[in-house]
């Protein structure tokens, strides 16, 4: 895969019952440096679906059996993070707009141009990569938070609340020196080299902490 086409583990999953359209999309994507995997039905994709899949899903609205919208709803029920781009006919636009409001990335009307499709996919993959990085950071921050002792967590909560060392010492009934020791351990365990970074990470992982 070319460096401009996302990251090595990103795939574009195409789900469409139209064999000619599937083949043309696979050719377009692979000739543009992407990895494409095609499925002829929503059921076939669902059978192969894994939560760890990364990249994006290009999904036709109207198919025999399970429709594209039904697959989209099922993936949402399974907490899928795979971004979805719908391929839609003119009559399906209102439903596609509704799907976008429910979390789909975008939709594209048939017939569509190659450049339009590639532009949508490029943006979709970039957003998915960024979102995945954010989820990894949140998971790592949550793991680090779990390594704190009860006292260290109390000190952290007061730091996030904007309290100075003297104020923290007064609230917890400990010496300023002890606060400084706990604070240093918190910074080390959280992997934060600055107070600003510490605050950003914790608020990102636990938004309620900022309140």
Number of β-strand runs: 5
CATH topology of the largest domain: Rossmann fold
CATH architectural group of the largest domain? 3-Layer(aba) Sandwich
Query: According to CATH, what is the class of the largest domain?
Result: Alpha Beta
CATH homology-level superfamily of the largest domain? Response regulator
Oligomeric assembly: single chain
Query: Radius of gyration, Cα only, in angstroms?
Result: 23 Å
User: In one word, what is the shape?
Assistant: elongated
Number of structural units classed as domains: 2
Q: Indicate the mean pLDDT.
A: 89
Low-confidence stretches: 1-5
Alpha-beta content class: alpha/beta
Helix content: 55-70%
Going across the major beta sheet, what is the strand order?
2-1-3-4-5
Count of helix runs: 9
The sequence of SSEs as H and E is EHEHEHEHEHHHHH
Question: What is the end-to-end distance?
Answer: 44 Å
Strand content: 5-15%
Sheet with the most strands?
5 strands, parallel
Protein name: Two-component response regulator
InterPro entries: CheY-like_superfamily (IPR011006), Sig_transdc_resp-reg_C-effctor (IPR016032), Sig_transdc_resp-reg_receiver (IPR001789), Tscrpt_reg_LuxR_C (IPR000792), WH-like_DNA-bd_sf (IPR036388)
Keywords: DNA-binding, Phosphoprotein, Transcription, Transcription regulation, Two-component regulatory system
GO molecular function: DNA binding
């Amino acid at each position: 895969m070319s460096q401009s086409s996302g990251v090595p583990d990103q795939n574009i999953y195409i789900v469409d019952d139209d064999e000619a359209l599937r083949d043309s999309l696979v050719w377009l994507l692979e000739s543009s440096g992407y990895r494409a995997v095609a499925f002829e039905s929503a059921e076939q994709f669902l059978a192969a679906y894994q939560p760890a899949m990364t990249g994006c899903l290009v999904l036709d609205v109207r198919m025999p059996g399970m429709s594209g919208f039904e697959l989209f709803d099922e993936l949402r029920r399974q907490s899928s993070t795979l971004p979805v781009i719908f391929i839609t006919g003119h009559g399906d636009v209102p439903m596609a707009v509704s799907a976008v409001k429910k979390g789909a990335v975008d939709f594209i009307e048939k017939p569509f141009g190659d450049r339009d499709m590639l532009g949508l996919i490029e943006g979709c993959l970039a957003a998915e990569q960024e979102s995945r990085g954010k989820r990894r950071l949140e998971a790592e921050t949550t793991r680090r938070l779990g390594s704190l002792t009860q006292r260290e967590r109390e000190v952290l909560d007061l730091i996030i609340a904007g309290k100075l060392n003297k104020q923290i010492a007064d609230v917890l009934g400990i010496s300023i020196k002890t606060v400084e020791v706990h604070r240093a351990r918190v910074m080390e365990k959280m992997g934060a080299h600055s107070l600003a970074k510490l605050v950003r990470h914790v608020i990102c992982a636990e938004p309620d902490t900022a309140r």
